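Exercise 7b. Backbone tokens:
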């Protein structure tokens, strides 16, 4: 049994909700196949399946894994773009009692090999080629060092050495026969079938267990907060297994809503899909919203079906969020959490704009949030400190890593998110930035997100990211990597003048400016690890030249 590693803790037992212990996501797909058989469940650019059709495919895929000899709790990795098959494989794994490990499609050989070896995957499901990259060739190279038994390939073109996913869709048995085949294999609500990986922005990724009952409680809370029902259509635009896409994977089947999978985000393609599929609930990262509204053909598309946008993965700058909301004509709410902790906080579409865009909202469901000062005591409203979360959705543990569990959760079940934030008088959470990214400049603390938000309002700036760089005298100084808007140029002096004009205190001004064409990103977040390595190399070169 794949029982969550933290399920024995007192805080976990207290959080168990008996009302959900009889229901899994596999059950939801079966329920929708009975109650909404002819309503579309999941679509991508080439395939469309109703709930009835999708549920039958899930049965076939799950039975196909059994035919390949997979045992209960065997791990299967999946590296695919957003597509119908990705949604089906997640549920088929749960139905067959397997551990599903989605891998971000942007990861390459080094990271993929690490994932496959750490979770001890028996097989992997992938595509042959996508956007010019040969995934099958990469897996074949990895197989020389990692014992992968099966490589299953999605698509019409399949290498001779691989197993075609289509070949698993041969189970034409009566439905009752398939049900009997899974009877002793299905994951139970108190177990986990899904293991997701962190982005690895601060190092190698960690692997997070996703207990079914806790993700079901998240789905319930999201459906209630967003007032979702079976007439809704959700967009799955982010290339991640979690984050923004949790709405499509968890809330959509609970509401009976259709999920639209977008294989690769391009702003115009995204707008075409919103218009064509009449998407109503759109989870995304801030950059996606801005890329759409800044596209030269933005006004050519009818996006009036949108009733709410859920933004996460990074804090949406207030002024940019306001601009996006006005252009898209629907409220934007932000959500907050992590792969490790789950999504515990979300804005309310009914809140005033000032609240929705300047905070990440209130806790979802039974989630609790607190902010503590350096002395460990809880901070007063408006006072900054460390953000902690505790909830049924925060019962995830790290897969086969008890030491990491002990380091991340305290004895009372509180998870440290490593962010600096504050709670307002009404319980809304405000996030200022990562604790590890805070710059200590001569004893003065600088939160990069705060300064980035102001600089992003400058009309010459497209994107900006601030990091700390070592300094013998001050300890650290600030350095900004900046992408100017097309056709313009800016300077350090000009940026600091803008900060001064906006009332920013002197010690928060920039010490160094690096102009670049683009910023590196992982899962929709700016990868500051790459920026730190880039500035380290530049500083070393400058030091060697001066010597």
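Sequence design result:
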């Amino acid at each position: 049994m794949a029982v969550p590693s933290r399920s024995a803790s007192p805080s976990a037992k207290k959080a168990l909700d008996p009302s959900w212990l009889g229901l899994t996501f596999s059950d939801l797909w079966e329920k929708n196949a009975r109650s909404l058989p002819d309503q579309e469940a999941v679509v991508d650019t080439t395939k469309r399946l109703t709930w009835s059709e999708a549920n039958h495919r899930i049965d076939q895929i799950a039975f196909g894994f059994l035919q390949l000899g997979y045992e209960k709790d065997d791990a299967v990795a999946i590296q695919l773009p957003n597509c119908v098959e990705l949604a089906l494989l997640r549920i088929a794994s749960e139905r067959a009692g397997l551990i599903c490990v989605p891998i971000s499609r942007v990861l390459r050989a080094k990271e993929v090999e690490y994932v496959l070896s750490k979770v001890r995957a028996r097989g992997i499901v992938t595509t042959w080629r996508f956007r010019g990259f040969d995934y099958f060739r990469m897996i074949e190279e990895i197989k020389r060092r990692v014992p992968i038994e099966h490589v299953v390939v999605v698509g019409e073109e399949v290498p001779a050495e691989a197993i075609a996913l289509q070949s698993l869709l041969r189970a034409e048995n009566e439905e009752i026969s398939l049900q009997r085949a899974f009877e002793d294999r299905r994951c139970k609500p108190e177990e986990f079938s899904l293991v997701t990986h962190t982005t690895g922005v601060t190092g190698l990724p960690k692997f997070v267990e996703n207990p079914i009952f806790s993700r079901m409680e998240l789905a319930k809370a999201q459906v209630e907060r967003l007032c979702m029902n079976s007439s809704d259509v959700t967009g799955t635009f982010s290339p991640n297994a979690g984050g923004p896409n949790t709405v499509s994977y968890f809330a959509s089947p609970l509401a009976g809503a259709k999920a639209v999978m977008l294989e690769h985000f391009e702003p115009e393609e995204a707008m075409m899909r919103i218009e064509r599929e009449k998407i109503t609930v759109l989870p995304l990262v801030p950059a996606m919203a801005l890329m759409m509204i800044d596209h030269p053909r933005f006004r050519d598309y009818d996006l009036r079906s949108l009733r709410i946008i859920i933004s996460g993965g990074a804090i949406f700058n207030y002024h940019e969020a306001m601009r996006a909301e006005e252009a898209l004509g629907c409220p934007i709410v932000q959500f907050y959490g992590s792969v490790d902790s789950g999504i515990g906080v979300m804005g309310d579409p009914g809140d005033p704009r000032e609240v929705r865009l300047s905070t990440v909202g209130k806790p979802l469901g039974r989630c609790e949030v607190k902010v503590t000062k350096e002395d460990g005591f809880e901070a007063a409203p408006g006072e900054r400190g460390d953000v902690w979360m505790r909830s049924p959705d925060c019962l995830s543990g790290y897969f086969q890593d008890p030491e990491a569990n002990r380091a991340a959760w305290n004895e009372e079940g509180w998870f440290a998110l490593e962010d600096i934030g504050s709670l307002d008088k009404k319980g809304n959470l405000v996030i200022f930035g990562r604790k590890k990214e805070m710059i200590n400049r001569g004893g003065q603390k600088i939160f990069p997100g705060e300064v980035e938000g102001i600089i992003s309002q400058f009309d010459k700036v497209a994107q900006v990211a601030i990091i700390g760089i070592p300094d013998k005298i001050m300890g650290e100084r600030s350095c900004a990597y900046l992408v100017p808007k097309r056709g313009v140029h800016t300077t350090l002096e000009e940026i600091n003048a803008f900060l001064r004009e906006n009332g920013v205190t002197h010690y928060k001004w920039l010490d160094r400016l690096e102009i670049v064409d683009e910023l590196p990103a992982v899962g929709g977040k700016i990868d500051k690890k790459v920026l730190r390595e880039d500035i380290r190399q530049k500083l070393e070169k400058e030091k060697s030249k001066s010597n």
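Instructor comment: The mean pLDDT is 92. Residues 528-546 form the longest helix (19 residues).
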